[in-house]
Design goal:
Helix content: 25-40%
Shape: elongated
Length: 269
């Protein structure tokens, strides 16, 4: 009588036999999965090692700031420039942030534009473009140089050859002149070279903008438009008349330029 249990021979007879090729394929797939897993782990270990090593190396003394090199500081005090960068020797190069340093430098009176560049392994270059003085504001010991925007640059002691933009006292370096005084400065900056060379100072009054030439002749310009035509009209009148007899020249309308004679010249005639 059968017990209903499968004998070993019966089980072996009913088991499905796997195709050897399929078995080999499964083994190969399992090996590929294992290899890929090992490769990913090795790659992750290598990347982590490189990143950590790079961070450690970048913050080591090998990549510290060895020097800060300043280029273009003709007028700016080099020590002040170095202090303003906020980049001391010994700082890690990776922690040097050029943009904030540039903004701080551009607050200095003489600095129009600053570019801070890292040169690995240990040099930071500061390249400055400085403002150019176009006029003198104030008088005496308080006279200062100003650029075309009316920004006070520094003391004018020992500076010759620049026109004067008014004798009134002014505040210290980095401050801008009043809007009215800036109009005079901009005029002086934009004058054609020949007329600027003859100008002693710029003025502003009821008739608008004007100039006083080196020999005292007052030139009325009206506004700052058509400066080349106005300069040419002034040159023509100066060539045609005896300068010693001229008191004023009005070129507010260049095509209708006029002059007045000095009272001294009339009385001596």
């Amino acid at each position: 009588m059968s017990s209903g249990l499968l004998t070993p021979d019966h089980h072996a007879g009913t088991e499905t036999t796997m195709d050897p090729r399929l078995r080999a394929r499964r083994v190969e797939v399992a090996r590929d999965v294992g290899r890929r897993r090992r490769h990913r782990v090795l790659a992750l270990v290598m990347i982590t090692t490189l990143v950590v090593g790079g961070i450690v190396l970048a913050r080591s003394t090998i990549f510290d700031v060895d020097q800060v090199r300043v280029v273009g500081s003709t007028r700016s005090d080099a020590n002040l420039v170095l202090a303003t960068t906020g980049i001391p020797a010994g700082r890690a190069m990776v922690s040097v942030d050029p943009e904030p340093a540039e903004k701080r430098l551009e607050q200095l009176p003489w600095v129009a534009h600053a570019v801070v560049t890292r040169h690995w392994p240990g040099t930071v270059e500061v390249r400055l473009t400085e403002r150019q003085p176009v006029a003198i504001a104030g008088a005496g010991p308080g006279a200062v140089l100003v650029d075309r925007d009316g920004r006070v640059l520094g003391p004018a002691a020992g500076t010759d050859g620049l026109p004067i933009a008014g004798p009134d006292p002014v505040e210290g370096p980095g401050i801008f002149l009043s809007a009215e005084r800036r109009r005079v400065v901009r005029l002086l900056a934009e004058l054609p070279a020949a007329l600027r060379a003859e100008t002693e100072r710029g003025t502003i009054g009821p008739k608008g903008l004007g100039l006083v030439l080196s020999d005292g002749i007052a030139v009325h310009l009206g506004d700052a438009t058509r400066l080349r035509a106005k300069a040419e009209a002034v040159a023509v009148l100066l060539d045609q008349a005896n300068r010693a007899t001229i008191a004023t020249i009005d070129v507010s309308v260049p095509g209708s330029a006029a002059l007045t004679r000095s009272q001294v010249a009339k009385e001596g005639a």
